[in-house]
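Hi R.,

Here's the chain you asked about this morning:
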Amino acid sequence: MKSIHAVFVRDGDWFVARCLDFPVTTQGRTLAVAQKNLQEAVALYLETWGDELRQPRLTEVYLATLAVGA
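And the predicted structure, written out as tokens:
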């Protein structure tokens, strides 16, 4: 099983869970529920888009510019 990286943030009465490896975000009333929901959401994401991940394509390119001395 591959590890995934996530950030959990408390937002009022909820915990928001954001996966850093895939575009998946969910929430739960407790940290444990948010973690479980994130695991299920990532599994669903991989079930839906898994084949696409095996054939990566460059779809967007961002060019960052650094203003020096501005």
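The first strand starts at residue 6 and ends at 11.

Let me know if you need anything else.
M.
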